[in-house]
């Protein structure tokens, strides 16, 4: 408990890997992620049986699959969190190449599962969504390029990272997957800002985003329909947003009771995109606030630890990973309460999913690896002339 309150102890030379990892990892963030996973299983028990019944499966078919995927995600997170920043960077480069090829082949080998967007590979026993794995590895690779551009005689990393971001966002928009595209663009923009981007350039990028949104609204019926539905002051109670809004209203402070919620019988995506509506209806605002606090704790603690980090690559990569983790949760919950247009984005570690759960485990494992305490002076020592 003392280490959790006052911080981890720097690792000693020659220590075995597990004691070294336990001494240096952020135990509060690790605990928050584990609690979110448990909450996800708890909500899965409530949200997935109606879907299983409609599809002719056993009542807890999707819960069992979520438990299996969750176990793989936890294993991926723990193994990744034991890596050094150098190993995280090297494996991310390889992962980026694989994810890029997978994205490029989606129009030819992918499927849409009847949802109108070709985002998945059908593996028979499961599906694979490459964009979920692209997010963390792209963030790490971009951070490496941005950090290398700060070195004397370094490569034009900022320009290269901007080019990669443009290509990846373009590939995601073509699926179309505007939610993941906006998340990738946001993560890169945050890192570019932290790396010292000129304000005028950031304003220009914002203008390009607005122009791109205008073009998408004019050319994509799918995109336009979601924007129109969001802007319409009258909410159709028979739509997914209508069901979710009513469920949140009915839940109140303490909820209607475990298993008593009705929204899971009406929403086809109650176990994925609108899982927070199930939480609000059955458990009330109390559980929703706990979930928000858990996400905020991971993001804030990670950013505070990164503020003390000297290595620019670690600072940039950690900041990007923490921000896309928090913003993805914010977007999912914002859609449910109609603060944002529908995006089709899962709630990390809580929503049902294979690719999203495992990719979230890898992403948080990278973040935990980058925020581990290392035997170095803090960045404040440099500012005070002691570095």
UniProtKB/TrEMBL annotation:
Primary localization class, coarse: membrane
Family: Belongs to the SEDS family. FtsW subfamily.
Pathways involved: Cell wall biogenesis; peptidoglycan biosynthesis
Domain of life per record: Bacteria
Record localization: Cell membrane
Enzyme Commission code(s) on record: 2.4.99.28
Transmembrane spans: 28-47, 67-85, 91-109, 159-178, 190-217, 283-304, 316-337, 349-370
Keywords: Cell cycle, Cell division, Cell membrane, Cell shape, Cell wall biogenesis/degradation, Glycosyltransferase, Membrane, Peptidoglycan synthesis, Transferase, Transmembrane, Transmembrane helix
Top-tier EC class: transferase
Reaction(s) catalysed by this chain's protein: [GlcNAc-(1->4)-Mur2Ac(oyl-L-Ala-gamma-D-Glu-L-Lys-D-Ala-D-Ala)](n)-di-trans,octa-cis-undecaprenyl diphosphate + beta-D-GlcNAc-(1->4)-Mur2Ac(oyl-L-Ala-gamma-D-Glu-L-Lys-D-Ala-D-Ala)-di-trans,octa-cis-undecaprenyl diphosphate = [GlcNAc-(1->4)-Mur2Ac(oyl-L-Ala-gamma-D-Glu-L-Lys-D-Ala-D-Ala)](n+1)-di-trans,octa-cis-undecaprenyl diphosphate + di-trans,octa-cis-undecaprenyl diphosphate + H(+)
Name under which the protein is recorded: Probable peptidoglycan glycosyltransferase FtsW
Membrane topology: Multi-pass membrane protein
């Amino acid at each position: 408990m003392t280490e959790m309150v006052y911080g981890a102890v720097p690792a000693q030379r020659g220590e075995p890997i597990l004691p070294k990892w336990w001494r240096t990892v952020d135990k509060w963030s690790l605990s928050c992620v584990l609690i979110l996973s448990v909450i996800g299983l708890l909500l899965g028990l409530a949200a997935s049986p109606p879907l299983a019944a409609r599809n002719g499966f056993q009542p807890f078919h999707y819960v069992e699959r979520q438990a299996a995927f969750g176990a793989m995600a936890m294993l991926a997170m723990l193994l990744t969190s034991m890596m050094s920043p150098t190993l995280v960077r090297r494996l991310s480069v390889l992962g980026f190449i694989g994810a890029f090829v997978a994205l490029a082949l989606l129009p030819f080998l992918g499927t849409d599962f009847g949802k109108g967007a070709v985002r998945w590979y059908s593996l028979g026993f499961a599906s694979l969504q490459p964009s979920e794995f692209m997010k963390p590895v792209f963030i790490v690779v971009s951070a490496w390029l941005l950090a290398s551009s700060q070195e004397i005689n370094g490569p034009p990393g900022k320009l290269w990272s901007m080019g990669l971001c443009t290509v990846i966002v373009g590939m995601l928009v073509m699926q179309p997957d505007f939610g993941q595209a906006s998340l990738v663009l946001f993560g890169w923009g945050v890192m570019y800002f932290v790396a010292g981007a000129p304000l005028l350039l950031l304003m220009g990028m914002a203008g390009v985003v607005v122009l791109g949104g205008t073009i998408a609204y004019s050319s994509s019926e799918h995109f336009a329909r979601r924007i129109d539905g969001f802007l319409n002051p009258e909410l159709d109670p028979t739509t997914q947003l209508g069901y979710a809004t009513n469920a949140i209203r009915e839940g109140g402070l303490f909820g209607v009771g475990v298993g008593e919620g009705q929204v899971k019988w009406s929403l086809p995506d109650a176990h994925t995109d609108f899982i927070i509506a199930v939480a609000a209806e059955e458990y009330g605002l109390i559980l929703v606030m706990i979930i928000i606090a858990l996400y905020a704790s991971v993001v804030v603690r990670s950013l505070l630890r990164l503020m003390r980090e000297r290595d620019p690559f670690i600072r940039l990569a950690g900041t990007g990973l923490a921000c896309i983790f928090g913003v993805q949760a914010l977007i999912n919950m914002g859609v449910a309460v109609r603060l944002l247009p529908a995006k089709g984005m899962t709630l990390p570690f809580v929503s049902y999913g294979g690719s999203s759960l495992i990719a979230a485990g890898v992403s948080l494992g990278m973040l935990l690896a980058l925020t581990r305490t290392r035997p170095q002076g803090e960045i404040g020592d440099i500012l005070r002339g002691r570095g």
